[in-house]
Amino acid sequence: MWRLGVLLTLIAVSEQLSILTFDVPNAVRAGDDAALRCQYELSPDESDKTLFVKWWWTPINGSSDERSQLYQRIAGRDPVAIHHNIKIEENDGILLLNVSVKDSGVYECEVSNIDEVRVYEKLIVFTPGSGVELDVIRTEDGPDADEDEEVIVSCKVEAVAPYPHLTITVDGELVNTTDLVINSSDELYDAYSNVTLSDDATAGSEITCRLAFADVNVTDISFVATEIYNGTGLTTESTTEVASTEATENYEINSQALSSVSWSVIILAVSFLLY
Ligand SMILES: *[C@@H]1O[C@H](CO)[C@@H](O)[C@H](O)[C@H]1NC(C)=O
Ligand SMILES: *[C@@H]1O[C@H](CO)[C@@H](O)[C@H](O)[C@H]1NC(C)=O
Ligand SMILES: *[C@@H]1O[C@H](CO)[C@@H](O)[C@H](O)[C@H]1NC(C)=O
Ligand SMILES: *[C@@H]1O[C@H](CO)[C@@H](O)[C@H](O)[C@H]1NC(C)=O
Ligand SMILES: *[C@@H]1O[C@H](CO)[C@@H](O)[C@H](O)[C@H]1NC(C)=O
Ligand SMILES: *[C@@H]1O[C@H](CO)[C@@H](O)[C@H](O)[C@H]1NC(C)=O
Ligand SMILES: *[C@@H]1O[C@H](CO)[C@@H](O)[C@H](O)[C@H]1NC(C)=O
């Protein structure tokens, strides 16, 4: 499971109840499981007869009225999962199974005995949807007045979450693009980005399109499509990869994302053969 966890070890400030470990991953890929931990410690002379532990979920930017309970353990009784897709783990941990983008939100652990302690953290479920598709098309009659040949670079990604942002670079230089993001269905977005460049200036360049998300650390979760534009309208190389700045963290591109990019490359290649 890919995750960027926040591990907080809180130091006891009072004689009473304290949280030893609180861990909520802040980015989880849709379809993965997410392990949430909340382990408390009682002071040596404290009885747990009145203890209870609860997990709560609130939507991102949601109000307290929208808070819903996920888990409960009351002293002397068995723990109860209040949602169907939760596996109960030891020490009041819960495992959210097969998360979807709807599971994004703030997860709060409440431990109550004589004192009450609440800790919470935001968790974002992301999905790369269709994966990034990059098209580089040469046009003899561009939108501007001059006769020069132009290259239309367009990039898209569909059914992604959270809110996406596409950027196009030419040999590493960011270019100004025309962008459009559509809320395509409940919580999923489609993003489109394009730019028209001069054919001469672009020949031999490496054109890259990157997907990033607004709500999660963008550099860790960017999908990339790259093509070398060789100046004759044909691209000689195409790769899709996941950029991860965490050397130890690796996750696979889903096959759907890969194949849709491969298809776009094949379709692009075929369309040029027809010219
Ligand atoms: C939450 O609120 C912030 C600030 O108002 C906003 O930028 C963000 O888009 C909101 N997120 C969602 C999921 O509504
Ligand atoms: C995971 O959830 C999705 C819907 O969000 C569902 O289509 C899929 O079958 C589930 N996978 C498993 C292994 O339960
Ligand atoms: C991009 O647009 C901004 C404002 O429209 C302009 O100041 C800037 O020079 C443009 N950059 C490039 C590389 O064209
Ligand atoms: C996206 O659109 C759906 C309806 O298609 C709507 O229910 C939802 O609130 C919208 N979400 C955002 C963030 O605008
Ligand atoms: C570029 O994107 C804009 C907004 O999505 C769209 O209206 C326009 O037709 C696109 N241009 C090209 C050449 O694809
Ligand atoms: C995002 O990740 C980079 C590299 O791992 C890190 O330097 C940066 O502080 C992170 N930003 C946030 C907002 O977590
Ligand atoms: C551009 O790529 C095409 C197809 O790979 C090749 O036939 C052509 O010779 C290349 N042109 C240059 C200038 O490299």
Automatic annotation (TrEMBL):
Domain Ig-like intervals: 15-120
Highest taxon above the source species: Eukaryota
InterPro entries membership: Ig-like_dom, Ig-like_dom_sf, Ig-like_fold, Ig_sub, Immunoglobulin_dom
UniProt keyword annotation of Transmembrane present: no
TM ranges: none
Keyword match Signal: yes
Keywords: Signal
Signal peptide: 1-16
Pfam family, one: ig
Name of the protein in question: Ig-like domain-containing protein
